[in-house]
Write a structure and sequence with these properties.
Elements lengths: L8 H12 L9 H4 E2 L2 E2 L7 H15 L3 H4 L6 E6 L5 H16 L3 E6 L2 H22 L4 E4 L5 H9 L4 E6 L24 H7 L3 E5 L8 H8 L6 E5 L8 E5 L1 H6 L5 E6 L5 H6 E7 L6 E10 L2 E6 L9 H5 L9 E5 L7 E4 L4 E3 L7 H24 L6 E6 L3 H4 L4 H18 L5 H6 L1 E4 L1 E2 L5 E2 L2 H4 L3 H9 L1 H5 L7 E4 L12 E7 L8 H6 L27 E5 L4 H16 L8 E5 L13 H4 L2 H10 L15
Parallel strand pairs: 3-8, 3-9, 4-6, 4-7, 5-6, 7-8, 10-23, 10-24, 17-21, 17-22, 18-21, 22-23
Antiparallel strand pairs: 1-2, 11-12, 12-13, 14-15, 15-16, 19-20
Helix pairs in contact: 1-5, 5-6, 7-8, 13-15
Length: 626
C-alpha cells in the first residue's frame, strides 16, 4: 500500500503564507550563494520588508493583530490542529522555498525519536510523488554522529539538503558537532560553525517540547538559522503567526474525525478516584478537613494531602488542578456514630476510610468498552477496506508487559469474552498475542521502559509502529491493538486509530489535545486513499468517528479539553465538539404497540389510580442542634 498525496486547499494556504513572507526575495544561485566552498542561504530582504509582508499576510488571512504577535525575530509560526498533516505541509514548503527562491539548506528539528521517525517516514512515502510534482529530489537524511560525511555534503552541496535532527545532537559542548579538537574538522572549524555559515532554514516541529528553554534557544542560535519556522497545534511561544487552523475549523470542515467520549465511571466515581478524606479536625469553630488530592506542581502531578480546609474551600484553587473545577466544600461533618464526611456543592460526598477506586476494576471496564467499540467498528470498516486500530496509553509498563500485569490480564480476559459474544468462539492464544503491538522495550538491565533509545532494541515492533505505517494499515497485518507509554503522546499518529483508552493509575498528564490527536486523522483504505464521510451522515453512523475512553468522567475530560482550548484561543468554542456515550450505551429506538384491551380494562385502571397517587413530604432539620 502507498498513501496518496492530495492537493488540499487548507494545506496549500499554509504553504502559500510562509512563501509570501519572502515576497520580493531574489533567487539564490551558485554565483551569489556559494562562499568559500559553502553553499549558503542568502537573504536579500530587509527586516522592514519582511515585517510588511507579515502584516499583509495577516490582513489576507484574517489574523487579528493581538493573535499575530508581530516580532522582529526571525521566527514564523504556523498553527495547525493535530491530524491535519503539518509534517507534509512543511516538507512541501521546503520544496516551494527551493522552487521560488533557490534556498538549499534546511534543518528539521524534532523533540523525540517518535517524531523523527514520523518525519523520515512521511518523506519516504511521498518522495516519488513530490519529485514528480517539483522535478527535484532533495537529499533528506537523519543526522548521525558516526556518518559525518553526510554533514559535509550538507554544507557543501548545491543540491537541496534536509537534515533531520534532535536537540540532543548539539545541546552540550561535548557533542561531536560542537567539538573543536578533532582530526576530521571541516577546514579546521567545528561542524556547528560550518553549518552556521550555511544559514539553514530551520523547521521546528512541536517547539513547545523543550525548544524554548534558555539553553535550547542559545544552542539553536549557534546554527545561525536564516529563519525558524515553528509548526505545532499547541504553541507556547507565539511570534509572527502567518497561518492558523483551529480545532473548530478542522472539525467543521471535516478535516479530522469527530470525537465521542465513552465514560465508564458512575456518579461520584470521579470523587472516589481523585479524592480521599484523610482526617477531620474538631476544635474551636467549624470543623476542618484534610484531603488527599492530585496537586499540579512544577514536577508534575502529585497525590498528597492538603492543609486544613474550611467550608467553601475551592479544590481547584488549592491544587491548581483543573479536574477539581467544580469541587467546592459545602459541608464538613463528623457524626457521633458514623464516619466523618465532606460534601461538595456538586453533590459528591467523600467519607473517612474510603480509598481511591481499585484501578483493576476501572481498567477492566475501560478495556471491555475499548474492545467492544473496536469490534463494532472493525466489521463496518472492513467492508470499506479500512483497517481498524485501537491505541491504549498506560502509565506503568509492568502493568502490561508482565504476564500477571493487571492490564495484560484484563485485556486477555475481556478479549476472550467479547470475541465469544461477537463470533461465538474463543480466540486462540496465538491470535490474542498476534493482535497486540506495544511501544516500549527491555533495557540491558532487564527492565521494561518506553525510553526512545531502548525502544530501538525491539526493531520489529519499533519499525511496525513508528516506521512501517503502511504495513500497520494493511488488513493482512494482525496487529489491531497498540499499547504505549508517554512516548507516543506527541508526534505519532495513525489515520486508522479509531479508539483510544487512557489506563493510568495516576492522573493523566497527557494533554487532552495530544491524547485525542493520536487518532484525529481522516482514515485511509487499502489503496492508501482517504475516506471521507458523506455530507449529512447520521450522528453515530460516521466512518470517521474517534471513540475516547478516559480514566475520568465525561464532564472532567471535556472541562480539561475546553480549558486547554481557552488557554490558547481565549474561548472554549474554538475546540471540536465532543459527544458523550456513557458506558457504551448508544441511543436505541424501538416502537412498542400498546395493547388497547388491557390498557382500557377496569383492573389496569384501578392499578394506575393507586400507582399515580401523589404524596408530598416536607421535612425540617435544625442542623445546629443536630
Amino acid at each position: 500500500m502507498k498513501l496518496k498525496l492530495e492537493q488540499l486547499e487548507y494545506q496549500q494556504k499554509a504553504i502559500h503564507f510562509v512563501i509570501s513572507v519572502l515576497k520580493g526575495q531574489g533567487q539564490n544561485t551558485f554565483d551569489n550563494a556559494c562562499i568559500e566552498g559553502i553553499r549558503s542561504n542568502i537573504l536579500s530582504l530587509s527586516k522592514k520588508e519582511i515585517q510588511q509582508n507579515i502584516k499583509d499576510i495577516a490582513i489576507e488571512n484574517g489574523i487579528e493583530e493581538q493573535a499575530l504577535k508581530i516580532s522582529e525575530d526571525n521566527d514564523l509560526c504556523v498553527e495547525m490542529e493535530t491530524g491535519t498533516g503539518k509534517t507534509l505541509v512543511y516538507i512541501k514548503t521546503i520544496f516551494e522555498l527551493f522552487k521560488h527562491y533557490g534556498f538549499t539548506k534546511f534543518i528539521i528539528l524534532v523533540p523525540s525519536v517518535a517524531i523523527k521517525e514520523g518525519v523520515l517516514k512521511t518523506f519516504e512515502i511521498f518522495e516519488k510523488q513530490l519529485e514528480d510534482i517539483y522535478n527535484t529530489k532533495p537529499n533528506c537524511f537523519e543526522y548521525d554522529s558516526k556518518r559525518l560525511s553526510r554533514v559535509m555534503n550538507f554544507i557543501e552541496e548545491q543540491h537541496p539538503q534536509i537534515m533531520v535532527m534532535t536537540l540532543q545532537s548539539f545541546n552540550s559542548d561535548d557533542r561531536i558537532l560542537n567539538q573543536a579538537q578533532r582530526e576530521d574538522l571541516f577546514f579546521n572549524m567545528p561542524y556547528i560553525e560550518a553549518i552556521a555559515r550555511a544559514n539553514p532554514i530551520m523547521i521546528m516541529d512541536e517547539p513547545q517540547e523543550g525548544m524554548d528553554t534558555d539553553n535550547s534557544i542559545e544552542r539553536i542560535e549557534t546554527l545561525n538559522p536564516l529563519f525558524k519556522i515553528r509548526y505545532s497545534a499547541t504553541h507556547k511561544v507565539m511570534k509572527n503567526l502567518v497561518y492558523r487552523l483551529t480545532p473548530f475549523d478542522s472539525y467543521k470542515q471535516g478535516l479530522v474525525k469527530k470525537i465521542e467520549v465513552l465514560t465508564v465511571s458512575e456518579k461520584n466515581d470521579e470523587a472516589s478516584m481523585k479524592i480521599e478524606l484523610s482526617k477531620i479536625e474538631l476544635g474551636k469553630g467549624e470543623p476542618k478537613a484534610v484531603l488527599k488530592v492530585w496537586h499540579q506542581t512544577v514536577a508534575g502531578f502529585k497525590f498528597k494531602n492538603t492543609k486544613n480546609l474550611d467550608k467553601n474551600a475551592e479544590l481547584y484553587e488549592v491544587t491548581g488542578n483543573i479536574i477539581y473545577k467544580d469541587y467546592v466544600i459545602e459541608q464538613i461533618a463528623k457524626p457521633i456514630r458514623d464516619k466523618g464526611f465532606v460534601k461538595f456543592k456538586n453533590g459528591a460526598v467523600i467519607r473517612e476510610g474510603d480509598q481511591a477506586k481499585d484501578c483493576s476494576v476501572i481498567f477492566g471496564e475501560q478495556i471491555y468498552w475499548l474492545i467492544d467499540s473496536h469490534f463494532r467498528k472493525k466489521e463496518k470498516l472492513k467492508k470499506e477496506g479500512i483497517k481498524c486500530l485501537s491505541l491504549t496509553f498506560i502509565d506503568r509498563v509492568d502493568n502490561y508487559i508482565q504476564p500477571e500485569g493487571v492490564i495484560k490480564k484484563a485485556f486477555e480476559e475481556q478479549y476472550k469474552k467479547i470475541h465469544l459474544e461477537f463470533y461465538g468462539k474463543e480466540p486462540s492464544p496465538e491470535q490474542i498475542k498476534g493482535i497486540q503491538g506495544y511501544y516500549f522495550a527491555q533495557t540491558g538491565k532487564g527492565d521494561y521502559t518506553d525510553n526512545d533509545r531502548s525502544m530501538s532494541n525491539n526493531k520489529e515492533l519499533y519499525d511496525l509502529i513508528l516506521k512501517d505505517k503502511e504495513k500497520l494499515l494493511s488488513l493482512d497485518n494482525p496487529v489491531e491493538f497498540i499499547f504505549s507509554h508517554s512516548a507516543l503522546g506527541v508526534g505519532w499518529d495513525n489515520p486508522n486509530v479509531f479508539n483510544i483508552a487512557t489506563l493510568n493509575q495516576s492522573y493523566s498528564e497527557i494533554k487532552k489535545r495530544q491524547e485525542i490527536g493520536r487518532g484525529l486523522r481522516i482514515c485511509v483504505n487499502q489503496n492508501g486513499q482517504r475516506v471521507y464521510d458523506a455530507p449529512g451522515v447520521i450522528e453515530g453512523e460516521e466512518i470517521n468517528l474517534l471513540t475516547v475512553i478516559p480514566n475520568e468522567t465525561y464532564e472532567t475530560f471535556v472541562s480539561q479539553y475546553q480549558s486547554e482550548i481557552s488557554e490558547i484561543y481565549g474561548t472554549k468554542e474554538a475546540g471540536a465538539e465532543t459527544r458523550n456515550n456513557h458506558k457504551g450505551q448508544g441511543i436505541s429506538e424501538k416502537k412498542i404497540k400498546r395493547n388497547e384491551s388491557l390498557f382500557n380494562s377496569p383492573s389496569f385502571k384501578e392499578f394506575w389510580r393507586r400507582l399515580a397517587r401523589k404524596t408530598e413530604y416536607l421535612v425540617f432539620f435544625d442542623e445546629e442542634r443536630i
